[in-house]
Structure formats: C-alpha cells, structure tokens
C-alpha cells in the first residue's frame, strides 16, 4: 500500500510505492513555531481533487462573468483575470482569513492583488467579486490600504448626452415604455449616474432668468404707475381749467353746457375699444378722427369730439406723439418756467458757492503764509537763545579765570610780605 510523502515547500502530493514507511521530515528552522503554522497540513488525494475542482469552477465562473452583458460583471471579470492571482488555500497560512468576511479560505479561493501599485493583499474570491460588481460606475479601492484598483469612468456633463446614453443602455423598451417585450426577457437594473454639476448650472440659469423677468415686471409697473399718476394730474388740471372757462362764460360750474353733460361711459375714449351698442353706432356714424369743417357744423359731431377730449389718454407702449391741447400747453409752459426758475436758482447758488470756495482758498493761503512766517521767526528766536547761552557760558568761564588769577596774585603777595618780614 503506498504511503503519502509530505514535502515542506510544496503543497502538491506525491506517492512513493517503493517505501513502506514515511520519510523523516527535514530539521525545522530556528523560528519553528511560525513555520509550524505556515506549514501545510497533510491531506489526501480527495482534498487535492476538491481543490482542482474548485479552481476549475472558479475559472469557469470568471469566464461566464466575462461573457455576461452586465457592465459590472465585465469589469469584475477583467480585473480578476488581469490584475489578480488566484491561489490555493494551502498557499496561505492556515490561520489567515478573508479581511472582508473574516472567514477562513476553506470555502473560497484566496486571491492576491498583483496589478495595483502598492497593494498585494489577499482577499477571498467571492468577496472580491462582490466588491468589484457593487458599483461599476464609481471608483473602487482596496478596503485595507485604500489603493485605487479601478478608476471611475468619465462623467457625462451634457444632460442631453446623458439622456441619450440612458435610452441606449435601457434598450428598445425605453423608446416605447408600453410596447410589447420579448417573452422571457427581464429588464436588468442599470445604475444611472446623474451629474449634479449640470443640474445645478441649469437651476442657477433658470433662477437668474426668473430674477431678470421679475425685475422687468417691476420696472414696467413703476413706469405705468408714474404715467397713470401723470395722466391723473394732467386730467385734474384740465378739469379745473375747463370749469374756470365754463364759469366765466356764464355757465355756472360748467355743467350747464349740454355738450359737457354727455356721459363718458357711452362714448369711447381715445385709443380704447368699448364693446357697447351705443358706442358702436356712434363710432360707425360719426368719425371722430376727421378734421372739423367750419362750414358744416354738426352738434352731434361736436358733442362726440368734446366727450372724446374729456376721456383719459390711453396707455401706449410705443413712443407715439400726442396732440397737445391748450391746457396741456399752458401746463407745460408753467412747468418749464418753474424748471427754468429752479435752474436759475441753482446756478446762483453755484456761483455763491464758488465765490465762497475762492474766499476760503485765499484765507487758507494767508494762513499758510503766516504759518511760514511764524516758523521762520521761531527759528530766529531759537538761534538767538542759543547765542545768548553761549555768551553767558563764555562770561562765566572768563569770570572763573579772573578769580583764579586774582587768588594767585594774592597768594604771591602774601608770600612776599611774609618773606620780607621774616
């Protein structure tokens, strides 16, 4: 009966039919404890066959992943085939375990990363496949050292391009959502990457456009309000002038004239279209736009003209010229006179301010000149003070010298008298 022979450096099995006993193992190295853990355990032919079957099954599963239509499976299969090395469970220490699921390598093949710079960790094949297939559109890194394994694909910045890519990836059913599909075909879930930068730019552009529209509406409303207020003021001025003219002609408050008793509600104003039967007949019968004929006077025509002149001026978007009557001309002349008077007052004030500024400039120059004179005078006084101090110092020195000479002469005189007496 053949016996198994275990070699310390190879996990492969061999048979030796010549020997009936097991060959003695080589002497252990110095670090025997560590090599005892790393040394593969004895196994039989059944375990070797199981390892070979698992390895062949692993390669067949990788080939099936590569042939799949899913982009995630294609990316995972490509990375495993090109940048990994599938090992045998006996090639790693018996105490090692997968860093993701924390299980030993008895149920899955250990896989070493070989195609990433700076990363050579060992991870279980199943966990590695799940990790690579999770997010194919994102960057994949090593869970231990954070080394980049697969870089993220480039983003689609244009929304139209992104929508076209979504339609092409989803297949023919995207063009017709309710159309019939082939029997037995299942829609595969696709991970859609939405670019937030383009959406943010579109939102910002819409917001700026809305703000511009709101500003335009406010500007138009402000102009309309100003024009309406101006029309009301001009209409009130015309009414006051008309009442004064009517009262001076003996018509009382201006209501005695039958032409002024026409109701404005039945007569269309200038530039306005009123859907009223009476106004329609009046507009068809009397053309208010024709010039007056002094030879053929018509009371109805005069009444319609007076009523049209009493109506408010229409709102015009275009800068069309308006016919200015006598009241408006007087009002404009009065306003022009006021503006000219104010302009004259402003010019006078400007002249006065210029004269005042000129006077202040002259005073400032005088003050500057006087300041310079005072500075020169101050320097002169300081120089005289220094000269006085020097003169006093010289006089003090001369006085000391005179006192010393007098004291010396006095001493000599005393010595001479003492010598003469002695």
UniProtKB/TrEMBL annotation:
- RING-type domain boundaries: 98-146
Basic and acidic residues: compositionally biased ranges: 231-245
- GO terms for MF: zinc ion binding
Q: Which Pfam families match?
A: zf-RING_2
What domain of life does the native source organism fall in? Eukaryota
Keyword annotations for this protein? Coiled coil, Metal-binding, Zinc, Zinc-finger
- Coiled coil stretches, renumbered: 329-359
- Please give the residue ranges the record annotates as the region Disordered: 1-60, 221-271
User: What InterPro entries would the database entry show?
Assistant: Znf_RING (IPR001841), Znf_RING/FYVE/PHD (IPR013083)
User: What is the name of the protein in this document?
Assistant: RING-type domain-containing protein
Record the organism.
Lentithecium fluviatile CBS 122367
């Amino acid at each position: 009966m053949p016996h198994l022979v275990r070699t310390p450096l190879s996990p492969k099995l061999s048979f030796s039919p010549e020997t009936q006993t097991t060959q003695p193992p080589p002497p252990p190295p110095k670090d025997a404890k560590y090599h005892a853990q790393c040394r593969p355990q004895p196994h039989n032919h059944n375990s070797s066959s199981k390892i070979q079957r698992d390895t062949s099954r692993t390669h067949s599963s990788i080939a099936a992943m590569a042939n799949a239509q899913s982009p995630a499976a294609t990316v995972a299969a490509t990375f495993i085939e090109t940048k990994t090395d599938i090992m045998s469970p006996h090639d790693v220490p018996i105490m090692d375990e997968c860093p993701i699921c924390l299980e030993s390598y008895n149920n899955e093949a250990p896989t070493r990363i070989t195609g990433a710079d700076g990363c050579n960790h060992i991870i279980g094949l199943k966990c590695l496949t799940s990790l690579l297939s999770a997010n194919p559109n994102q960057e994949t890194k090593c869970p231990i050292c954070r080394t980049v394994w697969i870089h993220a694909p480039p983003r689609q910045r244009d929304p139209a391009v992104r929508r076209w890519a979504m339609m092409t990836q989803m297949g023919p059913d995207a063009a017709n959502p309710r159309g019939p599909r082939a029997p037995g075909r299942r829609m595969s879930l696709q991970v859609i990457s939405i670019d937030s930068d383009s959406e943010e730019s579109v939102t910002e552009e819409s917001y700026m456009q809305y703000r511009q529209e709101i500003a335009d509406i406010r500007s138009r409303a402000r102009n309309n309000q100003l024009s309406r207020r101006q029309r009301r003021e001009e209409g009130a001025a015309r009414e006051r002038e008309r009442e004064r003219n009517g009262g001076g002609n003996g018509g009382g408050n201006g209501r005695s004239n039958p032409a002024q008793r026409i109701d404005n509600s039945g007569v269309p104003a200038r530039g306005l279209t009123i859907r009223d039967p009476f106004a329609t007949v009046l507009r068809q019968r009397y053309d208010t736009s024709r010039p007056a004929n002094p030879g053929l006077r018509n009371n109805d025509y005069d009444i319609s003209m007076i009523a049209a002149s009493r109506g408010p001026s229409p709102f015009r978007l275009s800068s069309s010229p308006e016919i200015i009557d006598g009241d408006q001309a007087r009002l404009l002349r009065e306003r022009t006179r006021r503006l000219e008077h104010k302009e004259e007052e402003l010019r006078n004030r400007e002249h006065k301010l210029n004269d005042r500024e000129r006077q202040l400039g002259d005073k400032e120059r005088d003050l500057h000149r006087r300041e310079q004179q005072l500075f020169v005078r101050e320097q002169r006084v300081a120089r005289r003070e220094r000269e006085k101090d020097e003169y006093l110092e010289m006089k003090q020195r001369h006085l000391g010298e005179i006192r010393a000479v007098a004291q010396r002469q006095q001493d000599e005189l005393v010595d001479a008298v003492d010598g003469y007496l002695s």
